[in-house]
Structures are given as C-alpha cells and as structure tokens.
Specification:
This protein has three domains: 172 residues, Growth Hormone, Chain: A (Up-down Bundle); 81 residues, no CATH class; 71 residues, no CATH class. Helix content is 62%, strand content 4%. The chain has 17 helices and four strands. The strands form two sheets. Strands 1-4 form a two-stranded antiparallel ribbon. The protein is mainly α and 334 residues long. The chain is elongated. InterPro entries: MFS_dom, MFS_sugar_transport-like, MFS_trans_sf, Sugar_transporter_CS. Its main location: membrane. It is found in: Membrane. Keywords: Membrane, Transmembrane, Transmembrane helix.
C-alpha cells in the first residue's frame, strides 16, 4: 500500500514544478519580414544575421531591446548591401527607429514550450506568470477543501475522483488550441492534483500505526524527490511541451486501478460507524503482513453502531489544546 500510494507523490511533481520545462523561455528576437531572404541572398551565418539586423542591448545592458524591439526598416529594399545593410540608412545605428515585434518572434530552441507557441514574451510575459499562478490558486482551494470532503465522503472516493479529473484535465491541456483553454485546464489540475497528493498522504498515515507515521511521511516526501529526477530526464528526452504534457499525464490513468488495490481507510470507516467493513480490512491487512489482530481491534463491535456519526468541521483544527497547537505550528511552518 505504501509503495502504490507513493507513486502519487512521484506523479505530482510535473504539476508542481512543470513550469520549469513547459514555460521555458529561450533566447528570442523579433521576426522581421525580408531578413531571412536577405540573409540567404548574402550568405550570412546566423551570427552575422544577428549582428546586422538585430538591435544591440539597451543602455543598461538589458536584453529587452534585442528581444522585444526591431529596426523599422524595409529589409526588401534592393539598395541594402550585404557588407553592412544599415550603413546606407544611417552610419549611427542608435539613431535608427525601433518598433515592437509586429510579426512575432524567432526562438533559438530545437523544441517548443507554451512560451514559444503562444508568444508569452515581452508585453505578454505576464501571461506566463498567470499560468503558474492559476496552479497555485488551485492548490490553495484544493488543499483547503479536500480535508473536509475526504472526511465527509471517504478517502478512497475522493482519491479516485481527483485522480480521474487530474488525468482528464492534463490531457485536455496538452491538446488545448488556445492559451485561455490551457489556463482553464491547468487551474483544474491545480484544484485536484494537490488534493489527491494530500489524500495519499492521509491514507498512508492512517494505514500504519502511530510509531510508523513519521517514517512513511518522510518517505512519501522522498518519493516526490524521485519524481523531480525523473521529470528532468523525461523533459530532456521530450523537448516539445505537448508531448511532455501527454507523457507525464497518461500514467495518472493507471492510478484508477487503485479502485481494486487500495481499500478505504479503516480509521475513517470506524469514525462513520462502519465497523464491519473496517474489521474486514483489518483482517486483510493482518493476513497480508502475517500478523495477528491486536486485542483492541478484536474487541471492536462488528455490528453497525446506532450512534451518531462524526461530522467533520473546520473547527476540529482548533477544538482541543493539543490539535490547536499542532495546527498553529504547521501553519507557521508552511
């Protein structure tokens, strides 16, 4: 159970830090009509084409002038020479007028990213920040709500639901035709991906005894680090963002098989007075581990309790002095 649930932590990595590869911003410059033809006619090397046709760095050495501005020059003029095409217009290049990149950009990369496909550079660079911010908003809302939902409807149901939504939205993001649709599906991924990761953590700590909770919690985090290493290798092999998004998303569909592999948390079942089902899971765990049931569990009543079920509430986080202390420590720590 621990190994299977740790795979959720591995698969969470591409959503948490995927912006590093999906939103990679390579060196770029304005696309100027006629430059490619002039370069071909003159036989320029790539370095010569840059030197003759792209503005130099700004006054403070910033690269924005080279990346976001272009010479307002008609490069199809027949009077332009190959030796120094701008010399015939003005001997001092700094006096030549500059304008925005009206015809898009050229990117120096063999692959692609959402930046190169949707031109999220220069005046549109804020849209890349919005893309990652949407994930973080989803993380916040999902983290705040999933605890209540998992207490209300059960860990397993919430886990499978969030896995399905995460996988579907990941695939839809990979085939999104526009930036807006991509942003929407990324927000949905943020809403459910952190939630499924948290439910996996809850299940792991509830499956084991108190003395093992710290250990499995640490190794669950270590699985995330393994995901970081794997993501770097996959991104190196797949430099095109759509194929990368497909590759890191499709394994999530395999987690739907957990319907048959992962039982409901017996601790949650007891809180819902479903003692018979909890007892069945306890016996299964004991059998698989070659252990006998503790006396405290053997005394558990098998019939359904007639008492009132425990209803989850956000007030549970501050209801007792001990849990109140833990809540404040964790809030401060995060």
């Amino acid at each position: 159970m621990f190994f299977l649930l740790s795979l959720l932590s591995v698969a969470f990595t591409p959503i948490y830090v995927g912006i590093v590869f999906l939103g990679f911003t390579p060196d770029h410059r304005c696309r100027s009509p006629g430059v490619a033809e002039l370069s071909l006619r003159c036989g320029w090397s790539p370095a010569e084409e840059l030197n003759y046709t792209v503005p130099g760095p700004g006054p403070g050495g910033e690269a924005s002038a080279r990346q976001c501005r272009r010479y307002e020059v008609d490069w199809n003029q027949s009077t332009l020479s190959c030796a120094d095409p701008l010399a015939s217009l003005d001997t001092n290049r700094s006096r030549l007028p500059l304008g925005p990149c009206r015809d898009g950009w050229l990117y120096e990369t063999p692959g692609s990213s959402i930046v190169t496909e949707f031109n999220l550079v220069c005046a549109n660079s804020w849209m890349l920040d919005l893309f990652q911010s949407s994930v973080n908003v989803g993380f916040f809302i999902g983290s705040m709500s999933i605890g209540y939902l998992a207490d209300r409807f059960g860990r397993k149901l919430c886990l499978l639901t969030t896995i399905l939504i995460n996988a579907a939205s990941g695939v839809l993001m990979a085939i999104s035709p526009t930036y807006t649709w991509m942003l929407i599906f990324r927000l949905i991924q943020g809403l459910v991906s952190k939630a499924s990761w948290l439910i996996g953590f809850i299940l792991i700590t509830e499956f084991v005894g108190r003395s093992y909770r710290r250990t499995v919690g640490i190794f669950y985090q270590a699985a995330f680090t393994v995901g970081l290493l794997m993501l770097a290798g996959v991104a190196y092999a797949l430099p095109h963002w759509r194929w990368l998004q497909f590759t890191v998303t499709l394994p999530n569909f395999c987690f739907l098989l957990y319907y048959w592999c992962i039982p409901e948390s017996p601790r949650w079942l007891i809180s819902q007075n479903k003692n018979a089902e909890a007892m069945r899971i306890f016996k299964h765990i004991a059998k698989k581990n070659g252990k006998s049931l503790p006396a405290s569990l053997q005394r558990l009543r098998l019939e359904e309790e007639t008492g009132k079920k425990l209803n989850p509430s956000f007030l549970d986080l501050v209801r007792t002095p001990q849990i109140r202390k833990h809540t404040l420590i964790l809030m401060y720590n995060w």
